[in-house]
Amino acid sequence: MAGGSVRLSLNWNSRAKRYSLRIAHGRTEPVLTIPRGGTLERARAFASRHANWLAHHLDRAPQAVAFEPGAILPFRGEDHRLHPAGTLRGLVKIGPGDADEPLPRILVPGDPARFERRVRDFLVAAARTDIEAAVARHTAVLGRSASRVTLRDTTSRWGSCSSRGALSFSWRLILAPPFVLDYLAAHEVAHLAEMNHGPRFWAHCESLCPRTAEARVWLKSNGSRLHAYGKA
């Protein structure tokens, strides 16, 4: 590519029918899929032919933001600055900003070497609290029950509902505004009644979450950005 090289992650896929390039959420490297019978030489040629496409999409990709002191990340939709608490013990908590820095802070105590882990654990715990509360609220209204609720760091979907009623969500929803998290909870709970995306499903979803349309627009415009946090 003009101006430098790009490191690619190779995916040898015996089920693929052709070479393909994609920039996956949460990945720092573009993925080049090589089909059955493919070769590295042909893969390099394919990547070279699509260099302009790759450069364009890499320029548009959100920049990775590490969980490190001074970084700014959204928490429940509002920007917060990560800040050492200055103590070795205690819980991660939210603190106010000051005259020099009006942004609220996420205050992180403990060993600096564990700063990133403590931030991630705090976000996952907060996501669990909010998601479980939203699921409980929506299942009560719908008259259904979930067999369990789990959190993962998924890249292809924000939530899922199994045929056995197990709900799964991305913990990164805690970074989004609360109405977006509420919509995803309503979406998966609605699947407990309708395992499809037909009119009856959407009627359930919109009844549970009146801001469904607004949340879907927000996710389409901003969802990819949520995968950039904690990835540097």
TrEMBL record:
InterPro entries in the cross-refs: UTP_pyrophosphatase-like, YgjP-like_metallopeptidase
Matching Pfam families: YgjP-like
Residue stretches making up the YgjP-like metallopeptidase domain: 17-222
Top-level taxon of the source organism: Bacteria
Entry protein name: YgjP-like metallopeptidase domain-containing protein
